[in-house]
């Protein structure tokens, strides 16, 4: 005889079904409990992680292969090919000679660029090392700021080059008219690469620095500081300029910034410029002129009492 299902039986059956569903969900873990949208998001994240891992593994393998290829190149590991950028004419062989201790090094040596930089910094011709870069094909590119000779300084029987900062450059040289000459500096010159600390030399450099950009600079051949600060004769000028006229002199006076009861450096320059405009010569065609006394004129030893040499009067060269 068939048993009639009661309400209690149906409720018990539903409870048993829920327990079975819960047990199955527990067997499948958290994943089974996620809604469809969260499942899709989780799948995308998992796919991205797997893809990233694959790329990283591939990149590492590619780098190892590239490293093997680079080391297999014929030039890799040989001595460096030095490339000097913007080196002044004539300095190239001097700088290469200074780099001799590193020319046999291995191009791939990790510390090579640092070694080259230190070698260059120790050279008196180098004012500043801007960069030392390792390039492909075994090259090392070097860019520096180099010292430029400004003048020859006569000391004893030799001539020494200095730059605008009065730094002594290497070597000694015969006299050459390419550079202005400074004569009469007292004291002993420093080693190459060191600043020559001498007040009379600093004064001469200051005068040359004011005159260097003038169109008549080539008419000046020397700055004479024998009597600097009146050490020979307190009544005479501290500084004189020699011109390219045999025996030609311009009495300059005191160092720039040290003028007392005399023309300033700007006033002296104005006189020389006007002479050059009127006569084509800064000395106005005279053997000796004095630019210390009057702001609008020069004088000469024979005309000092008369105030001769007034500019603008069309006087003829002697």
Structure in words:
- The chain is of the alpha/beta class and 318 residues long.
- Among the domains are: 66 residues, Ubiquitin-like (UB roll); 149 residues, Rossmann fold, CATH 3.40.50.
- It contains 7 helices and 11 strands.
- The strands form 2 sheets. Strands 5-4-6-7-8-9-10-11 form an 8-stranded mixed beta sheet, covered by helices on one side. A 3-stranded mixed beta sheet has the order 1-3-2.
- Strand 9, helix 7 and strand 10 form a beta-alpha-beta unit.
- It is elongated.
- The C terminus is likely disordered.
- In terms of per-residue confidence, which ranges show pLDDT below 50 for 5 or more consecutive residues? 25-31, 304-318
Q: What's the helix count?
A: 7
Helix content: 25-40%
Number of strands: 11
Largest sheet: 8 strands, mixed
Q: What would you say the CATH architecture of the domain at 151-299 is?
A: 3-Layer(aba) Sandwich
Strand content: 15-25%
Helix and strand content put the structural class at alpha/beta
Strand order of the largest sheet: 5-4-6-7-8-9-10-11
H and E order: HHHEHHEEEEEHEEEHEE
Measured distance between first and last alpha carbons: 158 Å
Average pLDDT confidence is: 81
The radius of gyration is 42 Å
CATH class of the domain at 151-299: Alpha Beta
What is the CATH topology descriptor of the domain at 151-299? Answer: Rossmann fold
